[in-house]
Amino acid sequence: MESAIEILTKNLENGGYFRQANPKDFDAEDFFKGFDDKRRARAVWTTTVIPRLISSKHPTLQRTGVALQRKWNSKSYRKRLNQALEQEEIVLSSVHKHQTRVLDHSYKDLCHILKKREASFNEAEDSTGHRNSTESNHIGTEAFGQNSATVGEQAYDGPPSDSLVSETVIDRALLERTSDTIGQVSEVQDDNDETGNEIGDDTDDLSLPLFTDEDRKTLADTYLHLPDNKVTLPSGKVLEDILFSNGVTRERHHLMHSYIIDVDDAATKDMFTPADWAFITKEQEMSVSLSDQDVAKILERFRRADSIGTIMTLLQERHPRLGKGFVMERDYDLKWIFDSISRWLDLYSMPFSVFTSDAPLEYFWRSQVWGALDTMFFDISNTLMIGGESSGLDSTERRNQQQHGKTVRKLVGSKSDGYLRMFGTSKSDWMSIEGAKNWDPFAKKYKHESAWKIGRQLHDIFRARTTEKDQSTIKHFRTYGLIFGGPTAQIHVMSSIGGAVTILRRRSPLTLAPSLQAFGENVTILEIFLLMKKDIVRSFSQHKKTVSAMELFMGSSSTAVVQSTSSIQPIPHAHPSPKKRRVQEPHH
């Protein structure tokens, strides 16, 4: 089996494994000998051959790989295969034979397409009278060069039955339709449901850029370098394989290209069975709580208040810990609660209601209301909330690492309205914030930031913060993002299911109460923020490490960092950002 795989995948760049004189040299029956898992046959094809085709530098191989992947993804094929698997009377060997036939035909079709492409090269060189088959750099020259003298003598009649060498070359008219033939032989258009849009490629409202051939090559390269610790779903399928096979055929960019699963994306959900989706979306239990009983009691007292008088009375009754015995590291959360409630209470004492005002209040809400977040981490050493339009550290690092060739200029990462940033010997981001004038979940700005931008930002942060962590602890690690608009904010959470995949979740939107009668809702928001802080600080303690002065002076600590980042990282970089230049849209 391994030798058969090697025959298929050896020397892709110079066309080595397509130089066989006869497709029958590929023994499909022998290829599947020893398979005990009925899914293994298809998995080898989709995880070994097709990704290497797509990652090739040759455009024809790339297009062929994508076309064959669409064939495997087609609903009609999956339906036929699943029906066969569900019939108990179909023995395992019969299933293998079915998959063998499909793979064998796909391989012959692939060789046939390359044969046609090679024939066009030969015909062009024959017209000059300087044909030299040994000097051609095109794929398959050694196998197909013998046919150059017969170019144009006979038309193409379909797949070869015995040998590609003995077949005459196709005519020029059919050569000009090579791309169409790729789709035909791969049966991409057999049924209406077998298109690149079958997994919900209809996010026109996001206006994400087209997913180009270069993007597909990059995606395939990333997939081929993923570590072996992939996630196996209850159905027996591999999570990373599903994301790649569906992502590579999409027409536009999507979070799945970065191995990010958005639990609210219907198109992603449709790719999995109910049991697999339940496994993916099952969230790890939170390992944090408000252990300070004084904090819990104060929150409960404010939660029951429903008038300005009652709230003012509670504010004046300062807790004893906020007096002479105040210790910043121990008592700051109590002080932050009092300060935040005092700040928010002013909203209900103003001579007009900001909740119903049509004025552009983005700065007001960010500074006067959600500004409570800016002061929440004052008790944490070297940690501040950075406001204003600024680029993320990890996004900037990724973009510069993904530059091809010599770096001409330093690239700037994705910008946000705020970051939670740790300073010291090295800087690191732990949270990303996006703001808007008002809260509108149907607006294009919200959809773009929630369904695309913040997910990639959190992925960059998550990957950078977990690079040096024990892989067994990553499942309990989370990074946070916040989108606010007007009096409403929504927390986004990035976590890991294992392997190369990260999970993006959205909490329910948090909205300030429009009246004092429901002021308890505001207190609940403060409690949620404190829980989020506890979880982030818990990650701080795991991240920090002591570096001696001698290590800094000798550079050994920085060397260690370089070595650690070069080791195997299960979570890949986010897929390169789409080019800003406008891509020509296809005409329908």
Automatic annotation (TrEMBL):
- Where is this chain compositionally biased, Acidic residues type? 188-205
Taxonomic lineage: Eukaryota, Fungi, Fungi incertae sedis, Mucoromycota, Mortierellomycotina
Superkingdom as given in the UniProt entry: Eukaryota
Provide the protein name. Uncharacterized protein
Residue ranges, annotated region (Disordered) = 180-207, 564-588
